[in-house]
Amino acid sequence: MHNLIVGTGPAAAAAILALAEDPAQHITVVDLGERLSADATAAMDRMSAMEPAQWHAADRELVSAQPSRIARSTLPEKRAYGSNHMFVDRGQQLGLTMPERGNDASVSAAVGGFSTVWGAQIMPFSRATFDRWPFGWDAIEPHYRAVLKEVPLAAEEDDYAEYFPLLHARAPLRTASRRTTDVLERYRRRRDALRAKGLLVGKARLAVAAGSCRQCGLCMTGCPYSLVYSSRHTVDRLVASGRVRHVSRILVTEVEQPLGGAPSVRGIDLVDGRSTRFDADRVFVAAGGLGSTRIALNSLTSPPDQVGLQESMQFLVPFLSRHTTGDPRGRDDLTLNQFNMLLTFDDEAYTTSQIHCYPYNPAVAAALPGWLPDGVTGAVLGRLTAALGYLPSWESPKMSVALTRRHRDSLPDVRVRVVADRHPAMLRSVLRRLAAAGPSLDLHPLLPMVRQSGPGKSYHFGSTFPHGNGSDLLGRIGDLRDVHFIDGSVLPSVPATTFTLTVMANAHRIVTESRHVL
């Protein structure tokens, strides 16, 4: 059977894994195909063959470029190995209008999608989430485990496991920063009182091959040893083995399937600008939450005028500690998220807010006023913790995607709008509870400096064609019986905890189950 996959992000990688185990399945992947520049790739290759002490200064400077400030954004735009190729527009953004302060780079053209630049946090959704979905925990747990055979998980057993099982941890995180160690020790001593208030703290769970970490301090800007997982790793490995055919520089615009016939994918070949078509027995669309939504709206015979869009809203909250851990500059600590805080609003961890807390990295120092004396900067950094928090989609601003115009040979014009709850009440409750817990953990939120990220900036969004109400359990919409949407666009909701692992597990579930449907 010939399977065609649209995209190379995490959902696509999971689809490839589900198909590759069956020799009868032929796999073709089409995407836009953006990659690192030759200079950055060469620098990576040189660095990965050496110990950090042997690196050339020019190579290190190239791959460790810090995030770049962009207009209308709460946070600067990250770089990976000095590159912004994952944000480059190759036509996938044309005709997509976002709200004020919205994410103007919400669909990626990169091989690997946004997993080329993500924070690498992975954990399952809670069992309570699936109690409200049209399929339960037992249906998806085997697919979580299957994905984690490919994706490395650095994690440890702690209070988080009560609601979010570890499933398949391979190694603990490497040595934590002094602030992380201090917070975890304070939590241990005050655990019962904090748990009684609905707050738990635990180490981060990261898609990192932690056992091979050299502690070079470049994980946030791009690990030269490729120890931070990207779906690009899976795609490239299986393409190199000959198991997968990869056709790049294709902008997919629609899918179609005549009654009683086989599906096909239409798009534009960006090499020559001509229309192109790919035929298959089955198609799996994994172009990202908004990318797949536009393809769907362009493909349905009678598309809706608009669909809902759910996002787990992101907010920035800096914390200040009374006790310093010393100037962190010059330490080569892990610069990814090191510990999390979870605020629960019920007894089953359904409605929660998750806070990802980061140690020092140069981007934090860059955010401080440049006129501060060096000694004062070091003193501040020894007390400062940057954190990104998230609300569940059902407590976040409500959005819609309106179809404004369809095109035969290009993606449709759509407009994303915020339609309600622009300033969620839950955020105020979260901040009050964080402030109350501050003395116990020596983490005091700087409330005047809290910032709500713009629409789409969390990258945790989708649910435009949710299972059970927009698509069936196999991600099929309308009359497209052999076309399956498998990414965030079909999730029934988006909890506050990280969603990439669930996107991958659900894609693996859909593809696995579809193989048994005639």
Q: What layout of secondary structure does this protein have?
A:
Blueprint: E1 2-6, H1 10-20, E2 26-30, H2 38-48, H3 57-63, E3 96-97, H4 127-130, H5 137-148, H6 178-189, H7 191-196, E4 199-203, H8 231-240, E5 244-247, E6 250-256, E7 264-269, E8 275-279, E9 282-285, H9 289-299, E10 306-311, E11 314-320, E12 339-344, E13 352-358, H10 362-366, H11 374-381, E14 384-390, E15 398-405, E16 413-420, H12 425-441, E17 444-445, E18 451-452, E19 461-462, E20 483-485, H13 500-514
Parallel strand pairs: 1-2, 1-9, 2-5, 3-16, 9-20
Antiparallel strand pairs: 4-12, 6-7, 7-8, 10-15, 10-19, 11-14, 11-17, 11-18, 12-13, 13-14, 15-16
Offer a concise description of the structure.
This is 4Fe-4S ferredoxin. This protein has 518 residues and is α+β, with helices and mostly antiparallel strands.
Taken as a percent bin, the fraction of beta residues is: 15-25%
CATH superfamily: FAD/NAD(P)-binding domain
Mean pLDDT over the full residue set = 93
What's the overall geometry? globular
- Give the number of domains: 1
Distance between the termini: 12 Å
Number of DSSP strand runs:
20
User: What's the Cα radius of gyration?
Assistant: 22 Å
CATH class, named: Alpha Beta
In CATH, the architecture is 3-Layer(bba) Sandwich
Secondary structure category: alpha+beta
pLDDT < 50 runs, ≥5 residues: none
Q: Main beta sheet, described?
A: 7 strands, antiparallel
GO molecular function: iron-sulfur cluster binding; metal ion binding; oxidoreductase activity
Domain 4Fe-4S ferredoxin-type: 204-233
Protein name: 4Fe-4S ferredoxin
Keywords: FAD, Flavoprotein, Iron, Iron-sulfur, Metal-binding, Oxidoreductase
